[in-house]
From TrEMBL:
Coiled coil: none annotated. It comes from the Bacteria. This is Cysteine desulfurase family protein, VC1184 subfamily. Residues 22-392 form the Aminotransferase class V domain.
Length: 402
């Protein structure tokens, strides 16, 4: 199982720019096949969904194909796949839907590891309902969640636990299934932010123990949008505000207005590209996705290890904050006595894109004690080449030597 990076890179016209992209956690580059699917859908015969003519059927086919493709990617039920403008929008929407039943004395659990999109919607919804917010703490020394603090947060009034499947800042992969089992034991729902995780690992929503799982296709080659996966039965129990004539059918009743059929087609195409990376002898799309993800993971781990080893040679000039035992190929670092923003600018002048900042990860950034200091984030993607890594490391060395 060896990923052919050179072949994969030919699918991405933007890589001809010469930029070495380490900004994957913020959004990947887009394959030509995805852009073509969007173009073909948008410029072909296209109407609102229906069955009477080809343009109506084309719209309906785009929606059905999108739900089926996302279901294969997440090992979910197509009838539980909800389209959204973004993962943030979906989380805010469902925070509103779910919090209708919360009252004073109820409790909501969030974590210090999460992107703010899986913190603030729940905190704000709890405040409106008069519910109490409790926190799973982050051990800054290890980059791991403190599960003892989880046990202290859970009780008979816990209504929901929100946790990331992988940190967009540190790459940390917490034990989601363990957290979910403990939450379910007290009758709480579990909302999992899978935005960063989905780009790097095989997803099985049920195996994770997630009642709700959100992700963002633009993190794995697709267009800018968000997706929620949940069981249709659970979605049936939730009643959002909606227009009187709009359907009450699940999952459509959570999708407001006319759907962007062209973006849905782009997502389906992106999943097709993911499945084609290194499918081996697999025949079903799900099996091709699993095989390809394994090849990507092996490659990304090798590149991450190579970068970590090179940074270790620089000693105290670099402080690597990504330390968890299980994590993605995403590294967050600071440079004692130097500004990470200066490092990012130095690298950008060499066409190496590794941005600096806190990346909306307000809580983990603060837990690390970096409130006033930015960090450099390096994210490896499936199309990252060995030459890209050479340029990154040479750039960091040159910056530190300057």
């Amino acid at each position: 199982m060896t990923l052919d990076v050179a072949l994969l890179r030919t699918a991405f016209p933007s890589l001809a720019s010469g930029i070495a992209h380490f900004d994957g956690p913020g959004g990947t580059q887009t394959p030509l096949a995805v852009g073509q699917a969007i173009l073909d859908t948008l410029t072909g015969p296209l109407s609102n969904r229906g069955t009477s003519v080809a343009s109506e059927r084309r719209a309906d086919d785009a929606v059905v194909a999108f739900r089926a493709a996302m279901a294969d990617l997440l090992a979910a039920d197509p009838s539980g796949i909800v389209y959204g403008r973004s993962a943030t929008q979906l989380t805010y929407d469902f925070a509103k839907h779910l919090s209708r039943g919360w009252t004073a004395g109820d409790e909501v659990v969030v974590s210090r590891l999460d992107h703010d999109a899986n913190v603030r919607p729940w905190v704000q919804a709890a405040e409106r309902a008069g519910a109490t917010v409790r926190w799973i703490e982050l051990d800054a020394a290890t980059g791991e969640l403190d599960l003892e603090s989880l046990d202290a947060t859970l009780g008979e009034r816990t209504r929901l636990v929100a946790v990331t499947a992988a940190s967009n800042l540190l790459g940390t992969i917490p034990p989601v299934r363990t957290i979910a089992d403990r939450a379910h034991a007290v009758g709480a729902l579990v909302w999992v932010d899978g935005v960063h995780y989905t780009a790097h690992h095989v997803v099985d929503v049920d195996a994770l123990g997630a009642d709700f799982f959100v992700c963002s296709p633009y993190k794995f080659f697709g267009p800018h949008c968000g997706v929620l996966a949940a069981s249709p039965a659970l979605l049936e129990s939730i009643h959002p505000d909606k227009l009187l004539p709009s359907t009450n059918v699940v999952p459509e009743r959570f999708e407001f207005g006319t759907l962007p059929y062209e973006l849905m087609a782009g997502v389906t195409a992106a999943i097709g590209v993911l499945a084609s990376i290194d499918p081996g002898d697999a025949t079903t799309r799900r099996d091709r996705l699993v095989a390809s993800a394994a090849a990507v993971h092996e490659r990304e781990l090798a590149l991450r290890t190579r970068i970590e080893d090179a940074l270790a040679e620089l000693g105290p000039l670099v402080e690597l904050h990504s330390r968890a035992a299980e994590r993605t190929a995403t590294l967050f670092m600071t440079f004692p006595g130097r500004r990470a923003a200066d490092a990012a600018a130095f690298l950008a002048a060499r066409d190496v894109l590794a941005p600096a900042g806190s990346f909306y990860a307000v809580e983990p950034f603060a837990a690390l004690g970096l409130d006033d200091v930015g960090g450099l984030r390096v994210g490896v993607a499936p199309y990252t080449s060995d030459e890209d890594v050479d340029r990154l490391l040479d750039g960091i060395r040159a910056f530190l030597a300057g």
